[in-house]
Each structure stands twice: as structure tokens, then as C-alpha cells.
Specification:
binds flavin mononucleotide, 5-stranded mixed beta sheet, alpha+beta, 4-stranded antiparallel beta sheet
Amino acid sequence: MTTGYTVEQLRAAAADAVRAPSLHNSQPWRFRLVDGGIELAVDPRRRLPATDPSGWGARTSCGAALFNLRLALAVAGTPATVRLRPYPGDPDVVARLVPDVPRRPTPTEQSLYGAIARRFSNRAPFWPDPVPADARWRLGEAARAEQCWLELVIGTTAVNAFAEIARSAHRVLERDPAYVTERTRWIRSEPSPDGVPTAAGGPQSEPQDLLPQRGFGGRNRAPGRDFEPEPLVAVLGSSGNTTTDQIVAGEALQRVLLTATDAGLAVSMLSQPIEVPAAREALRLSLGRFGTPQMVMRIGFGQPGRTTPRRPIDDVLDLPVVR
Ligand SMILES: Cc1cc2nc3c(=O)[nH]c(=O)nc-3n(C[C@H](O)[C@H](O)[C@H](O)COP(=O)(O)O)c2cc1C
């Protein structure tokens, strides 16, 4: 039994943690070692005030990074016991991880860990082939394993009803100049360690598109290269909507994304209906289920793509401190 994590263990696990998705690739996280425990905190300097005034996006992103951190430590044979929001007086600290009894990683941990470096947001059209039933089941199990639920929106009527909610949320957001300015500020047409590269931004929207694409300056679309006619839309939700619930939802999000990657599936996220309170409520009512929607995903078979850059690891580490 080790007494605490080392700086080398922190550095290695954080390198995997930062591969997590984040709102506009803002990477709103910091990692540090305090008395042998690894702590993950929201970086308040990297919040998106216009897009994410409540901090939901930053907490969800940090929750996703936390899931990678847990996996990396488990696969290294040094699994962690996790305490969420360990300091009530310091709500930015998302989690504290201390060494648990060393053990071998499970096959699931190994395959999910292997998917970390391959996962990326695929905003391009997917093939029309349906996602097989066993993969759908695995995705639901992934959410449940992290105390969340995953509702698949099935059938033309339900998908159209969802699309209407998503498009109206998109319109509300796009009418806000501060939101538009902030979104535009995170688009990158030159190599950059953060933000969304135009090459990853997906194709330009067209009037016939069913789902609203957040505009990241993507390229024009080849003629006839439409989005899949009936996308598989999945809504991830948690039982409540406290700050802790949002961190847990981030962990579940990353487990679902890695499970999809491991199953050979592509995913893009669309969170406009989560960010507009009236749309989120309409979505919740349309699903007819208990709890709070925390993220929406489009899942399918995609073309190959590339991962997006991250900041150097030294930019997100704080040196050891004694609390
Ligand atoms: C909370 C959250 C909300 C997101 N919302 C959207 C969205 O509405 N549209 C979109 O295209 N991508 C969305 N993303 C994906 C991020 O833009 C993406 O993770 C980031 O640019 C890094 O790229 P990667 O996922 O390829 O690593 C979201 C991600 C998170 C964590």
C-alpha cells in the first residue's frame, strides 16, 4: 500500500486526463498534489462567462477529465479512492484522489483506457448504418455504471421533436451577441493548444440540416454530403442537478464516449438544449423521465478524423503544496 501519489504519477495521469472533451476546448482544469492526494480543480480563469454562466460546462468538462484520471491511475495499478468536492469552502476543487489498495486493472478499464487517445468529437456526417443493439446496450450500461442514465431518442417523430427543441435553443443562443463573440473567439484557423480547430469544426450548416451545428468555422460541404437522415440521438442525464451531479455527469459522459470509441462508433456533442433553461426543461418533459438532462450526443459510424490539440501538461499542473 503506497502512502501517497508521486509527482511522476500525477504528471502521467494528468497527461491522460487532459484528453477529455471540454466546452469549446477551453480545458478549464488544474491538477495538483496535496499531501499525497491528486486534486483536480476548475480553473476559474478558463471559464466561459457568456456560454457557461452557471459553470455547468466547466464542471462537466472536469468530470470527464476526472474519469480519465481514475482510469489512468487504475491501469497503472494504483487505483484511487475519490472524494468529490472535498472542501466545502473551496467549491472549485472538483475531486481529491488518494491511493486505494493496489490491484490489477480490469479488462474494461484497459479497453476504455486504450480509447482515451483515439476519442475525438466527430462533427461530420455519419454513415446511415444503424448503431447495433449490443452497442446501444453497452452505452446505456456505461452511463449507469457512473450513476447516470442514457435515453436514446428513437423513431422519426421523437427525433423530429428533439430537433425542434435543439434548433430553438440554438436560435436563442445565436441571438446573444456575447455568446456569439465568445464562440468566435475559440475558433482556431492556425495551430493552437486550445480552442476548436476549423478542421475539426464540421461542415458548414445547410438549411436542410435536422440538428443545429454549433458554428466552428468548418469547411463548405461537398454536394450531396448530407447528414444521416435519422441520427441516433442520446441524452445523458443525472438524478439531480447539484454541482456534484454535474461532475458525476461529466464522468458518465466520458465513460459513454470512451465506450463508443471502443465500439468503433463516432460521437459529436450538442449542448445547446442543455444551455437554454427552457429547452432543457422541454427536453426533460419530452423524455418523461426523472432527473436532469446533462448532455446530448449524436452517435453513429463516422469517417476517420483527428484528435484536437491540448495545452502542454506543465500549463495545467500546480507544484506540490502543503495544506
Ligand atoms: C460540456 C461540453 C459541451 C459541449 N458542447 C458542444 C456543442 O454544443 N457542439 C459541439 O460541436 N461540441 C461540443 N462539445 C465538444 C467540444 O467542443 C470538444 O470536446 C472540444 O472541442 C475538444 O475536442 P475533442 O472532443 O475532439 O477532444 C462540448 C463538450 C463539452 C465537454
